[in-house]
Amino acid sequence: MSSAMLELILEATLDTLYMVGISGVIAALLGVPLGVLLYVTRPGQILARPLLNQVLGMATNVGRSVPFIILMVAIIPFTRVIVGTSIGTNAAIVPLTVAAIPFVARLVEGSLNEIPPGLVEAAQSMGATPYQIITKVLLPEARGGIITGLTITVVTLVSYSAMAGAVGGGGLGDLGIRYGYNRFDPLVMLITVAILVVMVQGFQSLGDALVRRANHK
Amino acid sequence: MIKLSNLSKTYGSGPGAVQALKTIDLEVPEGAIHGVIGLSGAGKSTLIRCVNLLERPTTGSVRVDGQELTELSGAALNQARHQIGMIFQHFNLLSSRSVYANVALPLELMGVNKTEIRERVAPLLDLVGLADKRDQYPSQLSGGQKQRVAIARALASRPKVLLCDEATSALDPHTTGAILDLLQDINRRLGLTILLITHEMEVVKRICHRVGLISGGELVEEAEVGDFFTAPRTELGRHFLNDFLQLEPPAALVERLEPAPGAHTHPVVRLAFGGDAVSTPLISRLARECGIDVSILEAKVESIQERTLGLMIAELIGGAEETARAIAYLETHDLDVEVLGHVQRDA
Ligand SMILES: Nc1ncnc2c1ncn2[C@@H]1O[C@H](COP(=O)(O)OP(=O)(O)OP(=O)(O)O)[C@@H](O)[C@H]1O
Ligand SMILES: [Mg+2]
User: Fold this and answer.
1) What is the DSSP string of B35-74?
2) Fewer Cβ within 10 Å of end Cβ, chain B: N or C?
3) Domain segments of chain B: what residues?
């Protein structure tokens, strides 16, 4: 294999990491608060706002039900506004992030569900404000579950990024399709797949290790 | 210290509404340990949760240390809650925090600085005997140890009142005893007013000064613990006492019991006597003065705090008139007499 080819593979790998990394971080920054909001605004919860809760819930469901490949195309105008183009790795980050936010939010909401309601009650009996309950009870108690959710999100983003690559987003998916499929070079295809497998494996192990550290259960 | 007036609580509205509390009046003086006992679903948890407004009463007033809590909300309510500690059946410790950090939590919430938190948490861990566990996590502790942490946590804000919602119901009898001793010790040392709810007479007997009996959302009976154990005034109170003492007439006798007296029957009575009556030779006097014979079927003596409680199931053997006189005689001597039924005279 030529050194030019190796260079291409390395570049594609970095592109994939870049897309996954940036979209993962933004999705976490927006998705975790959205998940918390979905939880605390439920009827009977500490900041019950039934109407807001329904609106947020609906928006989240819509975001989650649109297939990624359609979402990518559908939001092209939005992507252009944000990054100025609809092609390339930066352009791919926008739909990846948009798809990941509701995904993260539902997973976070799910892990908050696991917290025994007695813990919130105990905090209330100590005179905790809703903000204190979120920062000192809900988030720390759900930490393990949230990290698990983020790990699942990152792994999903790796495979979505390959899809984004196929329509001009760059990265390993792009490389795999261009060389492996269009020029029928099975070795390149194999290498890109192998790198993706290792990447997913790595993210999963990292996530598991962080969960173990976070959990004292 | 705690004064509940005309308190009622209805969950939901319309046809599905549940009235969990009906016009409750309850007063707990400073430094007292007050128990509330009742069957499952009677409204015990609702009652205690109304005291710190975890549940907002539908009507009525909740005063703690002279302050009307139902008028408060938001920051003022949170402030007032620092005066009221609470412990729970399932401990409700944060699994993400060490023992130390759990006890520190209420202080963090109040905005106490780190140095002062350290100074205040250490003696609390000493008080509950867990100084050596300060860096462990709740998952590494036994149930009794968890409840000790919860007690230390509840005391951290230096409350005037401690609420205990079935605090020992998840513990074995030995551990229950140790936790109750700790609560009693805290009550004596710190002068803390304690309101505790339970479904176990043992808990009431062991540490309460007064006790209220709740049924269907109503406080049906309230008394000093000694009085409640010697002479409960309601059917339900008697039921709790009998279950606790497990003094039931022998099965063979129960089969022969008839509800109404006949021409040739003897009454079978359950006698409960507290205080002076225990040391008086009542039975022999009864035999002498009323001219009847007494056949003791079962007997038991219990000590309830500083009082002694005697219990007896006996058959009064004599004519209808004599036995009626004997029962009246017992009642004038402050005995609680319950006629269980009548048995046919042996042929
Ligand atoms: N949040 C709620 N919504 C509706 N009904 C409730 C609620 N909480 C309690 N109830 C009802 O109120 C009544 C009293 O309940 P409560 O929990 O106070 O009883 P309890 O005496 O504590 O019982 P237990 O010994 O089983 O804990 C019950 O009929 C219960 O079904
Ligand atoms: Mg209860």
Assistant:
1) EEEE-TTSSHHHHHHHHTTSS--SEEEEEETTEESTT--H
2) C
3) 2-241, 253-344
Tokens 């339900």, residue located: B236
Cβ neighbours for A4, distance < 8 A, ≥ 6 positions apart: none
Q: What is the DSSP string of B180-195?
A: HHHHHHHHHHH--EEE
Q: Match 């309230």 to its residue by tokens.
A: B222
- Domains of chain A, earliest start first: 3-216 (1.10.3720.10)
Q: Which residue has the tokens 């944060």?
A: B94
Enter the tokens of residue A38: 């979905």
List of residues 6+ apart from A3 with CB closer than 8 A: none
Q: How far away, in angstroms, is B84 Cα from ligand 1 center?
A: 22
CATH T-level fold of B253-344: Alpha-Beta Plaits (3.30.70)
User: Which residue among B75, B105, B137 sits closest to A126, beta carbon to beta carbon?
Assistant: B105
Rounded Cα distance between A211 and A205, Å, is 10
Contacts of A136 in chain B (CB under 8 A): 105, 108-109
ipTM of model: 0.88
Predicted TM-score (pTM) above 0.90 = no
Q: What is the pLDDT of residues B243-278, one digit of tens each?
A: 888 777 778 888 888 888 887 888 888 887 776 666
Alpha-carbon gap, residue A125 to A147, rounded angstroms: 29
